[in-house]
Specification:
By secondary structure, the protein is an alpha/beta fold. About 45% of the residues lie in helices and about 15% in strands. The chain contains six helices and five strands, in the order αβαβαβαβαβα. The longest helix has 14 residues. The termini are far apart.
């Protein structure tokens, strides 16, 4: 499974989510991911997505583009979540914080490793009682 694909089902199960869109500048990947994960609407242009009626954007891209895409989303009046890190310099981090305050939109930096298929597989097994007692321990 391609990283990020796990979010489609998670978002669709949320009672406040009506549609899930995808934006991918590579037309072949856009088609492949759209079919694989059943995205409701598909965009090749991030600018077109920003002009759409979408309320929130989840940036799941390579690290170098996080800052730019997050800033554009917030400046377009969209709530935004992003895989870690939100930026690669302190100035980028402060820019995002200032833009959140200015725009009044929500920003969420998401550590997404718990949504990998391995973690979701184990979560399902745990819910079915197939793993036995789980204990968390920590040493200092």
């Amino acid at each position: 499974m391609k990283f990020g694909g796990e979010f489609v089902d998670i978002y669709r199960k949320h009672p406040d989510v009506e549609d899930v869109y995808i934006c991918e500048k590579d037309a072949a990947l856009l088609h492949a991911y759209g079919e694989m994960f059943g995205y409701d609407r598909r965009y090749e242009s991030y600018e077109e997505l920003l002009q759409s009626d979408v309320d929130a954007i989840h940036v799941v891209t390579g690290i170098p583009s996080h800052y730019e895409l997050v800033m554009k989303a917030l400046q377009a009046g969209k709530h935004c979540a992003c895989t870690v890190p939100m930026g690669v310099t302190l100035e980028q981090l402060w820019d995002i914080i200032r833009e959140v305050r200015r725009s009044g939109k929500k920003y969420m930096m998401m550590e997404t490793s718990i949504y990998t298929f391995q973690c979701l597989y184990l979560k399902k097994r745990m819910e079915r009682g197939e793993l036995g007692k789980i204990q968390y321990m920590r040493g200092i």
